[in-house]
Design a protein that fits this description.
- The strands form four sheets. The protein has a four-stranded mixed sheet, sandwiched between helices. A three-stranded antiparallel sheet has the order 3-11-8.
- The chain has a single domain, classed as Orthogonal Bundle (Cytochrome p450), CATH 1.10.630.10.
- With 416 residues, the chain is an alpha+beta fold.
- It is globular, with a radius of gyration of 21 Å.
- The mean pLDDT is 90.
- A hairpin with a 2-residue loop joins β5 and β6.
- α8 runs antiparallel to α12, α9 runs antiparallel to α10 and α12 packs across α14.
- InterPro entries: Cyt_P450 (IPR001128), Cyt_P450_B (IPR002397), Cyt_P450_CS (IPR017972), Cyt_P450_sf (IPR036396).
- Belongs to the cytochrome P450 family.
- This is Cytochrome P450.
């Protein structure tokens, strides 16, 4: 406990269903917070953005002794996973710089823009399924029909993965995503480790096949990406592809689900967006701000770090609460907790992180979110919740596990 008596507790009852009251308390009572478990928490927009732009570490090996580190290491040791190449998400410069430079060569704006026709076709097919489900049963699950399959299918198509692998890859990715949450349970570590080994083996086999039979796809482009003679090794290729499946997929699921739910809970903003296509781009920025698909990110201080009138010691694990920064009244004003799709500075949201580790897939997530949400609400203008939302119980990649939707039969148009 700190000298103020305040303790930020992400394990408190109700946190995963609605963490925003907890974030408001953090900002009000101790926005630069030293937790008794040995980590620090930042909740203000200015402090979070400053940390993201800094050159602090993302490699957990730099964390100093703390109760939290001891718990995690004790559980991880029992899985005997050993060392493996890390994705750029978990690497500092110069390794991060090298990996990102190579991957960026294949992840261009032109390549992302070219995906829009595919995304439109996939969304429209999902909306056909939703219409059929509503017509026959009265409701549909937005997660199962649209939010989950869309980004997964897009990633598989981008990479050129064999169709036979999709179902199993989806299951493995669902297990691996738990590694982005606080984990100290030995059995969970074992499940994650087993899924990690299997997905690595599967992707390595596809890479080997692609080397012999190149295609017009992202995986081939990653294999061929070169900078002054430097190329990704097979192990590095596998790590970056796993990152696309685990981090890239789940964040887009939450963007579509959280964004749709926010509109359903704010009928005036639903109507505003439905009637004004010119708001589409800014609306996605505001939906990202209002309920971030990724709630937090972390850095490890390499030297004493001054922030908010306090000094964080070297070797400290610092949790930057992106979702709290996105609702900070000091930055956004007194209406920070309101959804305003025409908010002029909505793009200042930090949902995709910032600085050297700004999300490489942000443009793809924005594209999928924009197409999915806008086509959904314009096809079903009286869309409504069919039942209570069930949350996925995660602290970081927080979103609905199920999102039941409905629409009166006379408002459901026939498919074009």
């Amino acid at each position: 406990m700190t000298d103020t008596g305040y303790v930020f507790n992400p394990f408190a009852p109700g946190y995963t269903d609605d963490p925003y009251p907890f974030y408001a308390e953090l900002r009000a009572l101790e926005p630069v917070h030293a937790n008794p478990l040995g980590f620090w928490v930042l909740g203000r927009h200015a402090d979070v953005t400053e940390l993201l732009r800094s050159r602090q570490s993302v490699e957990d090996r730099n964390v100093g002794p703390s109760p939290l580190r001891d718990l995690a290491e004790a559980a991880a040791a029992q899985t005997q996973t050993g060392n493996r190449p890390m994705s750029m998400l978990d690497r500092d410069p110069p390794d991060h710089t090298r990996l990102r430079k190579l991957v960026t060569k294949a992840f261009t704006k032109r390549a992302i823009d070219a995906l829009e026709p595919l995304v439109v076709d996939l969304v429209d097919a999902a909306l056909d399924r939703i219409e059929a489900s509503i017509a026959t049963t009265g409701s549909a699950d937005l997660i199962e029909e649209l939010a989950y399959p869309l980004p997964f299918t897009v990633i598989c198509e981008m990479l050129g993965m064999p169709d036979t692998d999709h179902a199993r890859l989806r299951d493995l990715a669902a297990t691996l995503v738990r590694s982005l949450e606080p984990v100290t349970d030995v059995e969970v570590f074992k499940q994650i480790a087993a899924a990690d080994r299997e997905i690595n083996d599967r992707i390595a086999a596809v890479i080997e096949a692609k080397r012999g039979r190149p295609g017009e796809d992202l995986l081939t482009a990653l294999i061929q990406a070169e900078d002054d003679g430097d190329k990704l090794t097979d192990e590095e290729l596998v790590a970056q592809v796993v990152l696309l499946y685990v981090a890239g997929h789940e964040t887009t699921v939450n963007l579509i689900a959280n964004g749709t739910l926010a509109l359903l809970r704010h009928p005036d903003q639903f109507a505003l967006l439905a009637a004004n296509p010119e708001l589409d781009t800014n609306a996605i920025e505001e939906l990202l701000r209002y309920d971030s698909p990724v709630q937090s990110t972390r850095r490890i201080t390499l030297e004493p770090y001054a922030v908010g009138g306090r000094e964080i010691p070297a070797g400290s694990f610092v949790l930057a609460i992106l979702a709290s920064a996105n609702r900070d009244e000091e930055f956004w004003g007194p209406d920070a907790g309101e959804l305003k799709l025409d908010r002029p500075n909505a793009k200042a949201q930090v949902s995709f992180g910032g600085g050297p580790h700004h999300c490489l897939g942000a443009s793809l997530a924005r594209l999928e979110g924009r197409v999915a949400i806008t086509r959904l609400i314009r096809r079903f203008p009286t869309l409504a919740l069919a039942a209570e939302v069930t949350w996925n119980g995660r602290q970081n990649l927080r979103g609905p596990a199920t999102l039941p939707i409905t629409s009166p039969p006379d408002s459901v148009p026939s498919a074009p």
